[in-house]
Amino acid sequence: MTSPTEAAAFPSLARIEDLVREHGISHVSVASADVLEDTRSVLHRRKELGLHDGMQFTYRNPDRSTDPRRAVPDARSVIVAARPYLTDSEPTRPVTGVHARVGRYAWVDHYEPLRVGLRIAAAEIQAAGYRAAVFADDNSLVDRAIAQRAGLGWFGKNANLLLPGAGSFFTLGSIVTSAPYEPNEAPVSDGCGTCVRCIDGCPTGAIVAPGVIDGARCLSWILQKPGPIPIEFREAVHDRIYGCDDCQDVCPISVRLGPRNTVDLDVDGPAVQAFVDAIELLDSTDETIEARHGRWWIAGREMRWLRRNALVVIGNTADPSDREARAVLDRYRADDDPILVEHAVWAFARLDERATPTS
User: Fold this and answer.
1) Helices (H), strands (E): how many in the chain?
2) Nearest 10 degrees: Cα torsion 322, 324, 325, 329
3) In the chain, fewer beta carbons within 10 Å around the N or the C end?
4) Of the listed 53, 109, 137, 249, which one is catalytic?
């Protein structure tokens, strides 16, 4: 690696935008590589309050994840990119069987094309003699905070980054580089105003204050983390097996303006996992489940947590007279795994409860 004084002219931001546009990346901006001091304080404070609920990721080491120079020691700037994952059409829900719903961001691997585009751009920066490292969905950098600094958007009350005229259905990634790109120092004003639809629309009340999420109540985290699903949240899980979009689905900015930035995706094609057959999953081996869903973050790579989720979905949504569903639950009530036994027992009782007419 040559020194900056020996380096060739690095590619312009316009050149970077051209390179990544071919990979569906619609927004690009630049932030300084200075420490994200405010975000660091927030992460430490929320950990002290227990709002992270054991979640690691950027909470694991806030001093690292808020300092781009921990990733690239001589970093001078951070190129931040956003790629939409909203689609123009919705997948067709299967009409038979017990199908569990998957969060929109996990239908396919939306991060891979983002990484590919950023790596191509980073390679040109490196060819000019500068350091450049790509980070996306990585605990090395708080992606939403650096994107806000770069002026891509503002933090909504649901703690997601909202892009003006586009909303929050975006994956975010960065190139941390020693090249001295000019940072965008024009922050985006809060566009939420008095709207509280995301707060009111959260099925578990996880948004405890504007921009503050209690991880212990957030269904996206509850469905990922190990251990039993708290009884008080099992009905709220409803038909979800992985992820929750509710706070985004009710956001006027994301829903009304979002279609201006969409990704081309065959939503009913075989590559899209918008729904999972819960009974089939419970009848499958761990190896089969991992082959189908292994790109999802599953605690400890233990497929038991997806099985746990599927059992709750069956209890909440299966026809109480469905003999196949009851047979699966009956089998899991005798399983060797006490976590799965607990959830199967609950799901069986839930079917009985739903089968009884209310007065």
Assistant:
1) 16, 11
2) 130
3) C
4) 137
What angle, 0 to 180 degrees and rounded to 10, lies between the N-to-C axes of helices 304-317 and 323-332?
A: 140
Domain topology for 13-92+105-177: NADH Oxidase (3.40.109)
Every domain of the chain and the residues it spans: 13-92+105-177, 197-355
- 164 in Cβ contact with 192 (< 8 Å): no
Alpha helices (H) in the chain, listed in sequence order: 13-21, 37-49, 62-65, 68-71, 111-127, 143-149, 197-201, 219-222, 231-237, 246-249, 252-256, 278-283, 286-293, 304-317, 323-332, 338-355
- Give catalytic status of residue 200 as yes or no: no
Strands 99-102 and 240-242: parallel
Residue range 266-321, pLDDT digits in tens:
999 999 999 999 999 999 999 999 999 999 998 889 999 999 999 999 999 999 99
Listed residue (109, 110, 152, 117) closest to 134, CA to CA: 117
